[in-house]
């Protein structure tokens, strides 16, 4: 960083979440949003003008060649993750890669290999690991307050309006089930031993709207992931996300769906996001900024991110990949040591 305290950041990929990344970075102290990249010139000009970013590239390789960029967020389609992340690491940039890490465990291995050889730092954006409700649960588990984990169940369900927008790009299991797969492996410290999956495809998009997976972990626990992207459009939830962890000495329950605010108006009842990237009175705050701040602090200190090891991200991908394979074949998939 040439002795600088400020991190000069670029964003590659300006879909909906890429724009959220860019907006948050533009508002954060000690970070300068200096460059943007998307293949769509009109979109690039629109966001660049709004945020006052002059370095704009329709070819991400030109952004990676820019010496004024220290770090990049890669917020592209999952099938572009591997090549862009590897190119960014080889260009010497610090790389925050949005989850899922890649579509396959084999692709994850390629990225990890590049990260191990790179001068820059690397982290996958598993945002749920920065949610205070989740981190307090992890602390309680590590303190032994619920004993040995024997059962976990999570649901992460969305309106079909969101499903219609996203399901041509990624399945419900890989798109959102990946969050809970990651958390369950993080909580338990275990590896996946075997996986059974089922998917249902009631919609018209490319990928299934409904995915369930049951995993047996190598510590004997059972873990169930439910991801449904076809709730009625009238659902009050931004996302109905809940996680139950039962141990030999107790249990804990995380409710990220009912986030403390319900707004009743003429259109009905809605429960907006109050923690991840809310924007009251036009300024963002929340868990995404905590994740970005953590990675920026790692860059400034030169410390490799320990909060989300890339091997953990790979393990979650391997689980969801196996669940999809099981859903397609009807067979239980026996895993090698994937973590």
How are helices and strands ordered from N to C?
EHEHEHEHEHEHEHHEEEEEEEHHE
Instruction: Give the CATH superfamily of the largest domain.
Output: Dihydrodipicolinate Reductase, domain 2
CATH class of the largest domain: Alpha Beta
Radius of gyration: 20 Å
Task: Sum up the overall morphology in one term.
Answer: globular
Biggest sheet, spatial arrangement of strands:
12-11-7-10-9-8-15
Unreliable stretches, pLDDT < 50, 5 or more residues? none
Strand runs, count:
15
Mean pLDDT figure: 96
Give the count of helical stretches.
10
CATH topology (fold) name of the largest domain: Dihydrodipicolinate Reductase, domain 2
The description of the largest β-sheet is: 7 strands, mixed
Based on helices, strands and strand pairing, what is the structural class? Answer: alpha/beta
Helix content: 25-40%
State the end-to-end CA separation.
32 Å
Strand content: 15-25%
CATH architecture of the largest domain: 2-Layer Sandwich
Number of domains as seen in the coordinates: 2
What does this structure look like?
This protein is of the alpha/beta class and 339 residues long. It folds into 2 domains: 7-127 and 284-302, NAD(P)-binding Rossmann-like Domain (Rossmann fold, 3-Layer(aba) Sandwich); 129-283 and 316-334, Dihydrodipicolinate Reductase, domain 2, CATH 3.30.360. It is built from 10 helices and 15 strands. It has helices spanning 16-27, 41-51, 60-64, 81-90, 105-117, 132-142, 160-166, 172-188, 287-301, 310-329, and strands at 7-12, 31-37, 55-57, 71-74, 94-98, 122-125, 149-157, 192-200, 210-217, 222-228, 240-247, 251-255, 263-265, 268-270, 333-334. The strands form 3 sheets. It has a 7-stranded mixed sheet with strand order 12-11-7-10-9-8-15. Strands 3-2-1-4-5-6 form a 6-stranded parallel sheet, sandwiched between helices. A hairpin with a 3-residue loop joins strand 11 and strand 12 (251-255). Helix 5 runs antiparallel to helix 10, helix 6 packs parallel to helix 8 and helix 8 (172-188) packs across helix 10 (310-329). It starts with 6 loop residues before the first strand and ends in a 5-residue tail after the last strand.
């Amino acid at each position: 960083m040439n002795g600088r305290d400020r991190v000069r950041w670029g964003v590659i990929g300006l879909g909906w979440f890429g724009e959220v990344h860019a907006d948050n970075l533009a508002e954060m102290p000690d970070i300068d949003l200096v460059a943007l990249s998307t293949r769509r010139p009109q979109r690039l000009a629109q966001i660049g003008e709004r945020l006052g970013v002059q370095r704009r590239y329709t070819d991400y390789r030109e952004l990676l060649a820019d010496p004024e960029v220290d770090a990049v967020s890669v917020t592209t389609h999952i099938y572009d993750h591997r090549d862009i992340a590897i190119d960014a690491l080889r260009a010497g940039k610090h790389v925050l890669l949005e989850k899922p890490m890649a579509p396959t465990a084999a692709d994850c291995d390629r990225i990890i290999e590049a990260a191990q050889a790179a001068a820059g730092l690397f982290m996958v954006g598993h945002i749920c690991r920065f949610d205070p409700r989740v981190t307090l649960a992890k602390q309680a588990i590590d303190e032994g307050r619920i004993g040995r984990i024997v059962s976990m169940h999570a649901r992460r369900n969305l309106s079909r309006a969101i499903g219609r927008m996203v399901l041509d790009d990624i399945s419900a299991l890989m798109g959102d089930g990946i969050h809970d797969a990651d958390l369950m492996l993080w909580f338990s410290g275990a590896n996946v031993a075997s996986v059974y999956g089922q998917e249902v495809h009631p919609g018209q998009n490319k990928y299934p709207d409904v995915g369930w997976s049951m995993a047996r972990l190598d510590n004997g626990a059972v873990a169930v992931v439910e991801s449904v992207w076809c709730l009625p459009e009238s659902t009050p939830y931004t996302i109905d996300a809940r996680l139950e962890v039962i141990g030999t000495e107790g249990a804990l329950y995380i409710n990220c769906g009912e986030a403390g605010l319900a707004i009743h108006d003429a259109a009905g009842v809605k429960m907006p996001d109050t923690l991840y990237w809310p924007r009251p009175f036009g300024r963002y705050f929340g868990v995404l900024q905590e994740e970005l701040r953590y990675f920026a602090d790692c860059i400034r200190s030169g410390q490799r991110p320990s909060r989300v090891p890339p091997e953990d991200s790979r393990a979650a991908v391997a689980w969801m990949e196996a669940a999809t394979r099981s859903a397609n074949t009807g067979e239980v998939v026996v895993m090698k040591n994937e973590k």
